[in-house]
Amino acid sequence: MSSIPLLTGQDGARLPAIGLGTYDLRGAAGVAATASAIDAGYRLLDTAFNYDNEGAVGRAVAESSVPRESLIYSTKLPGRYHRHDLARHAIEESLFRSGLDRLDLVLIHWPNPRLGLYAEAWKALVEAREDGLVSMIGVSNFLPEHLDRIIGDTGVTPVLNQILVHPYAPQDAWRAANAERGVLTEGYSPLGKDTDLVREPAVTRIAAAHEVSAAQLLLAWSVSLGVIPLPKSATPARQAENLDVFDIELTDDELGELAGLARPGEGADPMTHEEL
Ligand code: NDP
Questions:
Q1: What pairs with residue 108 in β-bridges?
Q2: Ligand 1: does its nearest atom lie under 6 Å from the Cβ of 213?
Q3: Residue 235: CB within 6 Å of ligand 1?
Q4: 3-class DSSP state for residue 158?
Q5: pLDDT digits (tens, 9 = 90+) for 234-252
Q6: What are phi and psi of 14, to 5 degrees?
Q7: Is the pLDDT of residue 1 over 80?
Q8: 75 has which bridge partners?
């Protein structure tokens, strides 16, 4: 089993350098897929209220022989529950659905700035942490101005910001803004789901030079940036393959070539995207 390096965040929080995306892993098959990932070595599991699989992921955690304290169960609060009282209820519901006795990490899924309630939601997350429902709190898809608002309001900095990161969307400025604030960056869709990224000639050529798959090359690229990628796979062989990326060292020329794949404007705009 591969050993996953750890990154250190706010308040000394230790987070694995890679995690499992679980979007679409539901029901009994979702439990089995999550269990096989834990067996392969994944310790960080990324679910969300809106994925309708908090129970499946929680069951795999509960039934695993891996000690509970070695696993990080991470979920996300949806936009329709940003109002302070609703946020508290949704976090309690996520905990109930997980079947666990605590959540390890709760993120605000999107800022939904048109609703204008993400600061209220953040206060509810801060209180949920104080009350012991959750150990760590963070955000997703938060632009620097959203981070500044919640940090300014509460004095509490999110442990991480989960954003779209892959070579079409390298997010140099956004990642730097997270780092300046002491916020780790988690990367979603690291394999470029729904794009042609795994078939890009630059990706397949560099992968071949290292004798690794395109997926492994893309994950090694995320890791080289200090991003925590969250590859999703329902397939045990791919789950294991996706963990075997920590010995891949990319040259400056290769990193430069991959930087050339950036497409300005890739991904949804958090100022306008409504995730409810
Ligand atoms: P990914 O970039 O992780 O791609 C997943 C796809 O890649 C699946 O079709 C999977 O197929 C395939 N795949 C996985 N491993 C390999 C491999 N080694 N070789 C070839 N194909 C492979 O996409 P996601 O959008 O799912 O992103 C990952 C996670 O990020 C999500 O599951 C979710 O947890 C999170 N996320 C968060 C968002 C947010 O707003 N915060 C938004 C989007 C995602 P198969 O399963 O059949 O192996």
A1: 77, 139
A2: yes
A3: yes
A4: coil
A5: 999 999 999 999 999 999 9
A6: -110, 125
A7: no
A8: 106
Candidates 2.40.50.140, 3.20.20.100, 3.20.20.190, 3.40.50.720; correct CATH number of 6-188? Answer: 3.20.20.100
What are the contacts of 251-257 at 24+ separation with CB within 8 A?
A: 254/206, 254/209, 255/221, 255/224, 257/202, 257/206
Q: Which atom of ligand 1 is nearest to the CA of 191?
A: 2
And the tokens for 189? 């869709």
DSSP 65: S
Instruction: Give pLDDT, residue 3.
Output: 83
Spatial strand order of the sheet with 160-164 comes to 20-21, 44-46, 72-77, 103-108, 134-140, 160-164, 184-188, 228-229
Residues written for the chain: 276
Calpha distance 87→95 (Å, rounded): 12
188: Cβ below 6 Å to ligand 1?
Answer: yes
Rounded distance from Cα 7 to ligand 1 centre (Å)? 22
CA of 152 to the centre of ligand 1 (A): 33
